[in-house]
Amino acid sequence: xxxxxxxxxxxxxxxxxxxPDPLWEITLSLHLLQNRQAAVVFxxxxxxVRAGLARAGLTATTTALTRLVPSxxxxxxxxxxxxxxxPDLHTGIELVLSTPRRRLAAELAxxxxxxxxxxxxxxxxxxxxxxxxxxxGALRRYYAIAVxxxxxxxxxxxxADRSVRSDAALRAGPDGLLRSYGPALTWESRTLTAPxxxxxxxxxxxxxxxxxxxxxxxxxxxxLADDGLDPVLVHPLGPAPGWLARARAQGRLxxxxxxxxxxIGPTRALVLDALEQPRTTTQLAELLRLTxxxxxxxxxxxxxxxxxxxERRGHEVFHVRTGLGDALMDGAL
Length: 333
Fold this sequence. Notes:
Blueprint: E1 2-5, H1 8-13, E2 15-16, H2 22-34, H3 39-55, H4 59-68, H5 89-97, H6 101-109, H7 119-125, H8 129-146, H9 151-179, E3 186-188, E4 191-194, E5 200-201, E6 210-214, E7 222-223, E8 232-236, H10 243-249, H11 259-264, H12 266-274, H13 281-288, H14 292-304, E9 308-313, E10 316-321, H15 323-329
Pfam family, one: HTH_20
GO molecular function, one term: DNA binding
Protein name: Helix-turn-helix domain protein
């Protein structure tokens, strides 16, 4: 059982993340690929993702990632930085790769307390630059297959959950907000309790608790292992069985099926949809299986139309949607 005690001041500091956190969705979806939890809900996704990973030649890469994120009570906290508020995948991965070496060594040591340490884990624990860059690439490639294509369904679930939480908070303040998480979470006498693999108290110590909704979190909430980090509580969104089939039938998982596709063309609509978060031309080409020249041409046309901006970060140029591009994709124009 997990127990979190609140003071009146703690209730005033309570926060709820407004968007899914890409790094939490990566780690928790990796858990689901290693177990059969919520089989009725997620088995169609498991089959689809495993096939997609195999086609992309990422089966071995995913196996390596599962050694860092085992389906167990512990996995390293540095893989989910930003206290549940990483704004996009690129920023989240940069935070992962900038983890201090001492912290890498301490957290990774807990993965293999008794058995032999796999070479990848050892190199990461030593802060090897090539191993860290390889980890960043693996996370990006895995996300592109296992999470990115399902982002519309994830966003829809998060928005629906946020509406429920907002209504509860407006009606009854922080007490009402925390009660709205029942029955998964129990709120009574300023104490929040939840099922957990082992008995644990999570001290707030005057720090704000951030509650993070997660599509791929199932059965019970998850929190960081280190009490010294700013407290985060990740809670399951609990999609209903058949979510994947319904989303496909309704066209929510393909930008080409959106009305904007009829205006700017299906491929350009896919490019604009993908640029909800910053991406290089190379990343766009890999994600959408386009040639570099085609991806560059679409990005240029969208930029000239004011739907995308491009900015240099070091040696790379990233493209991202503008407010006008967001409005077009959301049908707000």
